[in-house]
Specification:
Chain lengths: 208, 79
């Protein structure tokens, strides 16, 4: 794949000219996160359709891209706007609020603590001491990836946008149309779920 | 004074430096005295760093080909 596209200007030029390789690079780089964002806003059923419509808008509007944000952020805002417009058209604006309420209600702190707020049983001490050590186990890496895909849609989007796509929280909240405090709660829930996956793995290995 | 439960609740904000100075000092004071919470916060930090080493799953080549074909057709339709 051409190195030309790792530079945003090269990619924009390629997309404007309708080059197959530019389309390939852009879809490979952005389609996954676009789908997560669309699913968070409109649900699974029409997310792919939203992403496709968003791509058309991206291609049509490329000449208007001013570079005030990264190309990725700009594309994700287009996905978000396309999804929200679709919700409004279908008068489903409540859907997103409902999804958020449900996700905030789910996964609240479990009974890890006694009445005085102390650990019921203290956390296991992991033998991992670096991220590389954690990810060196293919089995654990796969379990983490699977747990991410199984997270509730909003948690998955917040986690992915923050940790893997390296977006700032205020930008994430604008894209997903949630408050920063809710964004931080969702991020903590998602990270806690992945912590559990690693912790379960560590426990299962230490009992072998 | 924060309890272990509060530390659990504030861990992400502590690691992301989103806590007020007062809460931050309270977390630090608790961590100074509590080994299990020190383990928890350190391991939570490791979890967070590990996630930063991963990438968002990219579509398969088949899906990319199909997406390109659909996109090109739609762009043509809109011209």
């Amino acid at each position: 794949m051409s190195d030309r596209f790792t530079d945003e200007r090269g990619l924009i030029e390629g997309l404007s000219k309708g080059e197959d390789e530019a389309y390939r690079y852009a879809i490979k780089s952005y389609q996954g996160i676009m789908l997560y964002v669309a699913t968070s806003i409109v649900g699974n059923a029409i997310a792919e359709e939203i992403v496709q419509d968003a791509w058309v808008s991206v291609i049509k509007s490329l000449s208007k891209f001013e570079g005030r944000s990264s190309l990725k952020t700009w594309i994700l805002r287009i996905v978000s706007n396309t999804a929200k417009t679709r919700l409004r058209k279908e008068s489903r604006s409540v859907a997103m609020g409902d999804a958020l309420d449900l996700e905030l209600a789910q996964g609240a702190q479990q009974d890890q603590f006694d009445e005085s707020g102390h650990w019921v049983s203290p956390p296991t001490s992991w033998h991992f001491d670096t991220p590389e050590a954690i990810l060196s186990s293919e089995e654990l890496k796969e379990a983490i990836s699977q747990a991410i895909t199984q997270l509730p849609a909003l948690q998955r989007s917040v986690l992915t946008l923050k940790e893997m796509e390296d977006l700032e929280m205020d930008e994430i909240c604008k894209i997903l149309d949630i408050s920063e405090s809710n964004g931080r709660v969702l991020l903590h829930r998602a990270r806690s779920r992945i912590y559990q996956v690693i912790d379960n793995f560590e426990n299962s290995k230490s009992h072998v | 004074m924060f309890k272990c439960k509060d530390i659990n609740h504030h861990t992400s904000d502590y690691l992301d430096k989103n806590l007020s100075l007062w809460k931050r000092m309270n977390v630090r004071l608790h961590l100074f005295m509590c080994g299990p919470c020190r383990d928890f916060v350190r391991q939570f930090g490791l979890t967070r760093s590990s996630l930063q080493h991963l990438s968002t799953p990219a579509p398969t080549d088949d899906k990319i080909d199909a997406a390109i074909a659909k996109l090109k057709a739609k762009v043509k339709e809109n011209q």
